[in-house]
Each structure stands twice: as structure tokens, then as C-alpha cells.
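Protein modeling request. Please complete all fields; requests missing the sequence field cannot be processed.
Requester role: graduate student
Desired output: 3D structure, C-alpha cell encoding
Chains: 1
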Amino acid sequence: MRFCRILLLLAVIFVPGASAYGQSKTLGKIVSNGPEFDALVPKGTVIEMLAEGKFKWAEGPVWSKEHKAVLFSDIPRNKIWCWCESKGLETYLENSGYTGSAPFTGKEPGSNGLAIDAKGKLIMCQHGERRLATYDGKKVENLVDKYMGKRFNSPNDLTIMSNGDIYFTDPPYGLPKGMDDPAKELDFQGVYRLSAKGELTLLTKELTRPNGICLSPDEKTLYVANSDPEVAVWMAFPVKEDGTLGKGKVFFDSTKWVKNSNPGLPDGMKIDKSGNLWATGPGGLWVFNSKGEHLGTLATGVPTANCNWGDDGSTLYITANDNLVRVKTKTKGW
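Delivered output (334 residues):
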């Protein structure tokens, strides 16, 4: 989920009859590997452009039923945007990841991954504050910011289990100097669980750059993306009865695609009701079945950070570099 400074030339196609707020454009192309993908994304489907150029690096989309809108982070600009069909793009929250009075010296001060809990509160991974925080529409409050007395690196993405437990990743991307930052207090990059009772558990520290994270529909598998160009993999961990993890295995290795100059790395992801994984990665957003078979790609052609289900659950909203796009599918998110 890191901010990419590569300049990209983006070709856009105009679609007659589309409505306002940038929906008259499309991005990239859709590549099917067979009928299993076509059943999810029918032929002729396009990647609709909703908003572009107003933000630097879009991340962490989440659907708000209250606002009937998608909220998403703009990490470099330290804010959360709101996009809805009727009003288009508006600012939702300023200082979403860093609230200090001193200037932030790094490039990624803002919030990153977002989720909404059962009570309707927005849960934010805050880079600048190095914590998980909640926002109820009025005030931001700390949820957790330390492990064993040491500050997190910069919490990146999260997923919430049906019992209220929060699973989240903690790579160093939000630290001004990354791995070499003198303020880094932990000597690893962890995956954690914050239980609904407030108990924090380190689940694994084996990954070099843990990033996107999501649960299978039966909550028995935790998927974690590793955004390391040398080991660009999606991992699958069995979830034990007590909520901790068993030994993980590589779900899919995209390292060769990264090394072949496809823009982006394994990043944010979501699951659908059938257990298919919709995972941002090199070249766009990859779709896998639960066996790890690559079904097809939403080939945005730009670094693509994250995605989430919205509307009636069948629309996939995607943050792709400085673009917010969507794809209408024939499945529903979980």
C-alpha cells in the first residue's frame, strides 16, 4: 500500500451515455482466463472511472451504508474522501492519519486501510500516528498503538471477524525512512489480532512486508499479501479455534510478474461469497478461486492499492493510483 511516485501515462476511453462525475471514462481492460471468470465478470464489462486526479495515492476503500457512499484514504494528503453517485467527490475527514502540530517529515502521513465495525464506527489504520483508531463522525480515538510497550511501525490494513476481532498488518511504509527509520521500535513487521475484548496478540512476524489482509467466508483462512518485490506473494494461514494462526502457505506467487515490470505489488484484497479472492497486485486486480487458480485480471495498468464491495454488494470499488474506479460483477462480496 505504499505511495508510488512513478509517472504513468493513462489512456482513457469515453463511453457514450454515461453520467456525470467522471463516469464517462474507463480505465485499462478486463482479461478473462476462462468461463469461471466470465461468470463473475461478464464479457463487455468495463472498469468505470469515478474520480481522478484529485488525490495522490488512493487507498483503503470501504462502503458506508449510512452515507450510501464509498470512503477511501488519500495517504500523502492525510485525508479521507467520500464519493457517492449523487454528489461525486467530497472531503470526509482531514488529518486522517497524522494529527500532530509538527510537520510530518515523511511522504505517507495519512490513514490507510479502513473498515466499519458492527456499531457503525470507522476503524482506521493511521500511518502518522502509528496506530489503529476509531472515528464516530465527531472525534478520533485511539484503539491500540503499542505491542509489548513498543510503538507499531505503521498499521496498514485490517479485516474484522464476525465476533468483532480485528486482524491487521504492520509494515514500515508510513515511517519517514521505512525500515531504516530511527524511530522504528519493533525489529519485525507483524500481523496482529486485537480481540473484541481488547487483547492484542502477535500472530506472525515471518513476512517481510505484510500488507493487504482478509478472511475467507467461513473465517477459517486468513489471507495476507506480502508487498516485497523479492517475495511478492499472497499467503494463506489457517485460523485456529482460539483465533491464532497455524502455519501459512503460499497461496500464489506473483514475483515473476513484478520483475517483468508490471506496476504494483500484492496489496489490498477482498473475498466474495463463493470464496474467490479479489486481490490487487502487479498490473491491476487479480481474481483467484479458493484453490489459488488465477481466473482473470482487472488490468488497470497502474499501481492498484485496494478494493471493497459496495452498493448492493456486487459492485467492486477499486483505488488505483490516483483513480477511484468500479466494476459491476455477478457475484457479491462477503
